[in-house]
Prior knowledge:
With about 400 residues, the chain is mainly alpha-helical. It is built from 18 helices and 7 strands. About 55% of the residues lie in helices and about 5% in strands.
Amino acid sequence: MLELSRIASHLLWLGPFMADIGAQTPFFYIFRERELVYDLFEAATGMRMMHNYFRIGGVAADLPYGWIDKCLDFCDYFLTGVSEYQKLITRNPIFLERVEGVGIIGVEEAINWGLSGPMLRASGIQWDLRKVDRYECYDEFDWEVQWQKEGDSLSRYLVRIGEMMESIKIIQQALEGIPGGPYENLEIRCFDRVRNPELNDFDYRFISKKPSPTFELSKQELYVRVEAPKGELGVFLIGDQNVFPWRWKIRPPGFINLQILPQLVKRMKLADIMTILGSIDIIMGEVDRLEYLKEVYGMIWVLVPIFTPVLGITIGVLAIVWLEREISAGIQQRIGPEYGWSFGNSSSSSRWHKTTFQRESSSIYYLIIPFGSNLVLSDLNIGVFLWIANFKYCSHWTSYLLLNQLVMKYH
């Protein structure tokens, strides 16, 4: 499962990387093989991408019937696909012109910046946590660490292509070395009966999954790392004699590798920026951190004078619309719908609403009307007021003077 995830990750990097530098065909090719990997994930875990299959001491469920044969068929098919990629991409003179000698990272720079994964191995350092830490059973298989010494974008491409082929070798050896005994979930076949279609639902197909265990974390600091497709993925925990850690920190490889980007793009052409950025292989979920707000914080005060009037106008418009609705409701309560229709209800009210936004002085009418309780107008005929406000041939100042006189008269 780990190596299948590595292949799927490198495929998803290869397609957009080639599209960024102008080659569209590989972008469609990679989804062909990637969907086959997702089919294997779905058959074993029930999910195509966000699967939760690993458990402490094992996996959540046994493999379905025939899964191993399908995985071996995929390995044989994928080797031919990688050969097709090499014929189409690796020997393409246009591709070589775009990536060769672009974004060079030296050995000392790679170490000082804390790079890992293909970014580190493309600079001439044979560092792979699968060989260094020897976790799981990687030391039992025959495979080689892929590395290059040039340190440019072409080297990073070659490292990832080589890693996919090495992953196929590891998968084949792992499947052939499965010990005897039952390892397939044969009961899953009975869920395909047509007479019980509800048994094909997710809860029934994978109801035999083992839940994750719960245990206390002792008062100590723990750091565990694995060789993810993009580099070193680490988890730092501080226990507090509780089932929940006191502190939990994840070290994403893409976030660390991206920090060298400003150094790589210096004195480079604008078209080479996409090549360099694509060769780093980042995912925005890893690099979207709060540290970047420190650089953006200074721009906030520049935007405040712009957005403050906009926000004030928006609140004012909403208040006017709400007030107009309350006035219309007051008409219905005070003089009845049969009288309010011609003065402010429905169509007349909508025309008056347009007048409010189109004429700057009409909004001042609200400021001279005395209100009673519950926003019901008092001591003034609403019909006269709305008739004046909606009278098209009456000037703004004339309407204002008439309303002023009406207010003075009724007070």
